[in-house]
């Protein structure tokens, strides 16, 4: 077991890593802002609605190459490299978990909810997260045990426990077959019957989760997102005083592609009880 001196040493080391992550996210955001003005070259990945652009690949290469130059022994999980066939493997090694453009469909349509997300894990535990909203330049950051911030202002989740006073966020996911759509609409219907104030879909899981961290929304749930959508945001929500769990009601499983996040335990578990599961293949399905 690590001593308090070792823990302090590692904490300072990860603080340095987070400072580099912030610089890298800002640089990536500049590239995205410039590309936002121009026509995009679009292709598809796993489905006709799972979209990718040349900028996604360019930005991921920029982020990973910049970080690898400084930390050659670290591991990397990136959305586009995983789509290209690299195994999505989380080990005990220091690991960067990267979404170069969260909200690619938004980016393609010039809808301004677009973010860079960089999470960092050691011993399979999330240590810090950086999410940069490229268009309005809001920078969300958190390090385990040190609070969560947006542009230096500390974040605090909502403490709402009453579903009838809640604003809930979700996303549709890549599956659009009739059975999946029926479950998706059924889940929304169950929450609407609880008389929630509203349900919103903004097209970016990371920025939706940041709205929970900031207290602007009370909860978020989704099936079909990925570890690179979750990693940074999970640290930010926890450090803002919130709760991040699996849709089963158990602990968050980063590779399970499902999540419930809320300001309060009561709201998180209420949603987990109410929603029906939409099954997606795990991110680590191809790891032996």
The overall average pLDDT, rounded, is: 93
Name the helicity range.
Answer: 25-40%
> What Rg do the Cα atoms give?
18 Å
* Helix and strand sequence: HEEHEHEHEEEEEEHEHEHEEH
Note poorly predicted spans. Answer: none
Q: What is the structural class?
A: alpha+beta
Assembly of the depicted chains: single chain
Which strand order do you get reading across the main beta sheet?
3-4-5-6-7-8-9
Main beta sheet strand tally, sense and closure: 7 strands, mixed
As a percent range, the share of strand residues is: 15-25%
- The end-to-end span amounts to 28 Å
Question: What does this protein look like?
Answer:
It is a single chain. This protein is of the alpha+beta class and 288 residues long. 38% of the residues lie in helices and 23% in strands. The chain contains eight helices and 14 strands. A seven-stranded mixed beta sheet has the order 3-4-5-6-7-8-9, with helices on both faces. A five-stranded mixed beta sheet has the order 11-10-12-14-13, with helices on both faces. Helix 5 links the parallel strand 10 (167-170) and strand 11. Helix 1 (4-36) runs antiparallel to helix 2 (54-70) and helix 6 runs parallel beside helix 7 (227-239). It is globular and about 50 Å long. The two termini are 28 Å apart.
Question: Notable features of this structure?
Answer:
alpha+beta; 288 residues; 5-stranded mixed beta sheet; single chain; 8 helices; 14 strands; 7-stranded mixed beta sheet
Summarize the structure.
This protein has 288 residues and is an alpha+beta fold. Helices cover 38% and strands 23% of the residues. A seven-stranded mixed sheet has the order 3-4-5-6-7-8-9, with helices on both faces.
